[in-house]
Amino acid sequence: MPKHKDDPPKDRDVDFDELLPYVGEFGTYQKILFCLMIPFAFYVAWVYFSQIFITLVPEEHWCKVPELMDMSVDRRIALSIPPETHGMMEGRAKCLMYDVNYTDVRERDLQVADPDWPTKPCDNGWEFNYTVIPYATVATELEWVCDNAALPTFAQSIFFVGAIFGGLIFGWVADRYGRIPALIGTNLVGFLSGVATIFAGNFWEFAVCRFFFGFAFDNCFTMMYILVLEYVGPKWRTFVANMSIALFFTFAACLLPWIAYYLADWRLTCVVTSVPLVLAVATPWFVPESARWLVSQGQVDKAVLILHKFERINKTKVPDQVFKDFRDTCARIQKEEEVDKSYSVIDLFRSPRLRKITILLVLIWMAISLVFDGHVRNVDNLRLDVFVTFTVAAATELPADTFLTLVLDRWGRRWLACGSMVISGIFSVWASLVSNNIYSATLAIMGRFCVNISYNIGLQYAAELLPTVVRAQGVAFIHIMGYVASIIAPFIVYLGFFSNVLPLLVLGILGVIGGVLALFLPETLDKELPQTLQDGENFGKDQGIWDMPCFTKKADDAECPTSNFRRSSTVRSSRRASIRGETLRSSMIQRSSIRSRRSVVAPPLEEERL
Ligand SMILES: *[C@@H]1O[C@H](CO)[C@@H](O)[C@H](O)[C@H]1NC(C)=O
Ligand SMILES: CC(=O)N[C@H]1CO[C@H](CO)[C@@H](O)[C@@H]1O
């Protein structure tokens, strides 16, 4: 980082992060960009969660009997619906009705049915109790209940399949044509398919719309997130990275159930949550293209032009020498990257330890994705008001993020990943065993809180363990495996159909298994990141399974909590900034890893140490 603005040293490396302090780390333009993240945070929250609210099915539904429709609902039920026990609770059948001639029944003026009458499945559709969920959804209109109760689950999985395709396609667009076209494209697809959803007249039409809606999921926010983080100076990056998600995303997620509740119309909800995406077409006028991407395309002049715009708006002045050094550095980095391009994911599986690490990372990340997604979707099974539960659960994301920012660089990744997953597992299992609804929902939400912490650790951990030369591809690979796991999540939630206990029990067990697996990974806190495949192979060989960063360190290095925290938090935030969402765009991660590699071994660190 430059120390003397007026006296830039000659012929030194100036990479993007070192240039930023000259244009202002968090100046007026960056603040504007930070605010421009708000709509995109809303988009992703809505793209991710809105399907929950347009496929809700009221717990209480029963067969419709056209002949009795003019009677009061209680009498109608008494006459046509047989009793049924659901687990412990006395209830009435959801999928069966008495098989009698109802015109006859009316004439005999009966008040209640005879339990000995034969029964049959509903053959005239269903009625729903709209007290708790006060609106019809696509699932109630198309009667996705009883034999068809799994259809919303399938639709959700199809959404994730779409997310995989969308991630790959727009990742390619982002590399080829730039971040802004990808950002606009992904949001437009979301807008069109979101609006198209309201015309769906059967399951397959709905599923196709969901598939394309899923395209938007991976990039509609992260592309913007990455763009903005790139332009924010390293000192402010942690703040921007965490606050944008903690505040905007959480707020949008908390707001969503109430939008659905007050609109009380699934089509309107769909429109209101997908039409705003079209605003993304305005981004070229407000948001600059990624300078890093321009540089990687050899368009350094354009990148410099953008930086001049920052100078103007922030009212700063960058010495010409700095720009010159920057150009030189760009040229050199580009050459370095050419070399890295000859490796692929396969290389991760060639040597034994690296193979073990990679497989563990994949399994752990799959467990995390599965458990997290399962929890998100399980709100419906918690037997409480789904709107309130969802809001409370979404609100846990704020403390989870804050907590993580505070401890991740003190306690290390390994124990924190293990701890948060195991504790999440314990909460979930516990929640599945208690019968009190409120108590159980609270525990389930605690479980979700913990797994959200693991989720955040997960990808970063992967990025740190994989050697630089294949880091980008490796992280992308793991990320995709996470989506594959998410495809299964809705089915675990669907187990609730058989027994309310099952989903949480399964999620809990998976959490504990994932957590224990994390212990077999090496710790990365305060370690130099592996660069070559050989580094990756040897990484952590000296560590025992019970090692803990702070306790073992303190003896020989008393400054463990303070200065290391400061240093690695910049390293972390810069890396995380580029990795968190944009995992499929390899070139960028590669660049950011070069950047962080340098900041780990670079002089500033030594100064701090000595
Ligand atoms: C619908 O649900 C509400 C609230 O749970 C309940 O009070 C009401 O009796 C139910 N109506 C029918 C017809 O079951
Ligand atoms: C604190 C934390 O990890 N929050 C995350 C919870 O999950 C959502 C959805 O994936 C993330 O966007 C949050 O960052």
UniProtKB/TrEMBL annotation:
Residues that span the membrane, as ranges: 32-49, 154-173, 180-199, 211-232, 239-260, 266-287, 357-374, 386-408, 415-433, 475-495, 501-521
Main localisation: membrane
Keyword terms of this UniProt record: Membrane, Transmembrane, Transmembrane helix
Major facilitator superfamily (MFS) profile domain span: 95-526
UniProt-listed SUPFAM superfamilies: MFS general substrate transporter
Coiled-coil regions listed: none
Keyword presence, Membrane: yes
Cross-referenced InterPro entries: MFS_dom, MFS_sugar_transport-like, MFS_trans_sf
UniProt subcellular location: Membrane
Membrane topology: Multi-pass membrane protein
MF GO annotations: transmembrane transporter activity
A cellular component annotation (GO) from this entry: membrane
CDD domains: MFS_SLC22 (cd17317)
Recorded superkingdom: Eukaryota
Protein name stated in the entry: Organic cation transporter protein
Organism: Ceratosolen solmsi marchali
Gene this protein is translated from: LOC105363770
